[in-house]
Amino acid sequence: MHTLKFLDSTDNQLSGSVSSFVFNMSSILDIRLTNNRLSGELPKNICNYLPHLKALFLDKNMFHGKIPSALSKCKQLQQLNLQFNNLSGAIPKEIGNLTMLKGIDLGYNKLHGEIPHEIANLQNLEALGLGMNNLVGVLPAPIFNMSTLKVLILINNSLSGSSPSRMDLSLPTVEHLNLALNRFSGTIPSSITNASKLTFLELGGNTFSGFIPNKIGNLINLEWLSLGNNSLTSSTSKLSFLSSLANCKKLRVIALTGNPLNGILPSSVGNLSMSLKTLVIANCSIIGNIPRVIGNLSNLLALSLEGNKLTGSIPITFARL
């Protein structure tokens, strides 16, 4: 076993703790034990004898206890995936020493405490997944200036503050941004339109307020836009931000439920993407008639307008849907 470089036992029914020999093979480059029934705590000296390890996948198991700070000794590590376990405690700040890291996924655990500022030191990081934990505190602002980051998933924690509103969003490479179900507040900065590669933007279930940026339609690669259950509104009664979204020809989902938009549905809604599958504008204090041109959205699978103050008749053009 002294020359073994790859160990892959993904998708089996392995149980019990991981034999110590797995973490003592100095030649190993890649360990993948995803989707088993492995349990126990991760060894405190987990990386003492793994100088060449580049990938560690222990996700979808039943490991518990803390994430060992000794992970920082795996200096060559590029991929770290520990999601879907029962890990608890804080994220060790030493993780910021793993300068080769490209992907971190610690989601679906029981981690608590704050996100270490040291993560922003990872100049090669492309994906950071910390969703579905119990993390608290203010999000370190430098994370929004990481020039390599493509995916940032923080859904369903207790993160707070208005850091996202301060982000000068110099995230030229970000494609997937999910901050849903936290306690973020403040406004959505117009600089979000600088993130020109965004395809997925999910900010629902926070306490964002102020106007939805009228230039949001500059995100021409956007496929998913969800801003529901905040305190957002429109700068005009004709929901001018909706007009700008006509530029987003790849949009499949628009979800705005539970925001006090306090306006009318403009005729420009009929110019939205022909790729649109879901349009949800429920409980948004919308008044006036349903525009006939909504029938142009012939590929819609779900249209939700309930809980508003709409009047008039249901357009006959609905027959096109």
Description:
- The chain contains two helices and 25 strands.
- By secondary structure, the chain is mostly beta strands.
- The strands form three sheets. A 13-stranded parallel β-sheet has the order 1-3-5-7-9-11-13-15-17-19-21-22-24, with no helix packed on it. A ten-stranded parallel β-sheet has the order 2-4-6-8-10-12-14-16-18-20.
- It starts with 5 loop residues before the first strand and ends in an 11-residue tail after the last strand.
What are the SSEs and their pairings?
Elements: E1 6-8, E2 15-16, E3 30-32, E4 37-41, E5 55-57, E6 62-65, E7 79-81, E8 86-89, E9 103-105, E10 110-113, E11 127-129, E12 134-138, E13 151-153, E14 158-161, H1 163-166, E15 176-178, E16 183-186, E17 200-202, E18 207-211, E19 224-226, E20 231-233, H2 240-244, E21 253-255, E22 278-280, E23 287-288, E24 302-304, E25 309-310
Parallel strand pairs: 1-3, 2-4, 3-5, 4-6, 5-7, 6-8, 7-9, 8-10, 9-11, 10-12, 11-13, 12-14, 13-15, 14-16, 15-17, 16-18, 17-19, 18-20, 19-21, 21-22, 22-24, 23-25
Task: Provide tags for this entry.
321 residues, mainly beta, 13-stranded parallel sheet, 10-stranded parallel sheet, 2 helices, 3% helix
